[in-house]
Write a structure and sequence with these properties.
The protein is of the alpha/beta class. It contains nine helices and eight strands. One of its GO terms (cellular component) is membrane.
Length: about 260
């Protein structure tokens, strides 16, 4: 049962970070921390965090990365190392302000890569990792999917969809995503750059019809883990499994975290 939701602005040296916590009656259990995708934010998780909190019987926390949603603009210095930067520079003060010693990292798309990076860089604090539609490398399908989305946002009125959630940061968000992933300098990127090994339990979820990547991504992420590994490949599902197959995804996550020791 959800007791309450709590919105907080977390003052950090890099700017204020907006967070939301879905509180349950099981505050003693390790919370799940959500990391959103390249165009996402807290609000775009929709009802997934509440469903997750109810099924897993533990608190769920989401935050807008700097430059996204209600958080402050990105402080600058965006580069091809933005995933590593989140783990090393921007997440630690957020964790400190939230006063959480241990956490379960769950990320969607690029958020899944960032969650993997958190697990790799903070092995004493990250008790488990869950990736949803995370990429492990840049393939032709990735570039094709991004170009199709780029063309869609060029249509009249489409950018307003982003402005609804990100305000005047929308143009920067779209450009940062497209310019990074389509750049020649990023063509050889692999997830090992940010997460060379994963020592915590791992659940990798991906749709077989993901428009940004084949199921090879889930297998490559799983290959990085040295301990317990589970994969869930959802037939006919595209890039947002938690929205397309919410019951299956939530049930799989609840079963996975239910085996953890808090």
């Amino acid at each position: 049962m959800i007791v309450s939701t709590e919105d907080r602005y977390l003052p950090t040296e890099h700017g204020d970070v907006f967070s939301r916590r879905w509180r349950t009656r099981h505050a003693h259990r390790t919370p799940i921390v959500l990391l959103h995708d390249s165009l996402g934010c807290v609000e775009l998780w929709r009802d997934f965090p509440e469903r997750l909190a109810l099924a897993c019987e533990r608190d769920v926390i989401a935050y807008d990365r700097l430059g996204f949603g209600r958080s402050a603009p990105h402080p600058g210095g965006w580069s091809n190392h933005f995933i590593r930067d989140e783990a090393q520079r921007y997440f630690p003060p957020v964790r400190d302000m939230l006063d959480i010693e241990h956490f379960i990292a769950l990320g969607h798309s690029v958020g899944g890569i960032m969650a993997s990076s958190l697990a790799a860089h903070h092995p004493r604090h990250c008790q488990a990792l869950i990736t949803i539609a995370a990429l492990a490398f840049v393939e032709d399908r990735t570039r094709h999917g991004i170009r199709q989305t780029q063309a869609a946002f060029a249509e009249p009125g489409q950018l307003e969809r982003l402005r609804k959630y990100h305000g005047d940061k929308a143009e920067w968000i779209l450009a940062a995503w497209i310019d990074t992933w389509l750049s020649d300098s990023y063509a050889d990127w692999t997830i090992q750059t940010s997460a060379p090994t994963l020592t915590c339990p791992l659940l990798a979820i991906q749709g077989t019809d993901d428009e940004y990547g084949t199921v090879t991504h889930a297998h490559r992420i799983a290959a990085l883990a040295t301990g317990r590994v589970e994969t869930l490949l959802l037939k006919g599902c595209q890039h947002v499994p938690h929205r397309e197959r919410p019951e299956l995804v939530v049930d799989a996550i609840a079963g996975f975290v239910g085996c953890l020791e808090d």
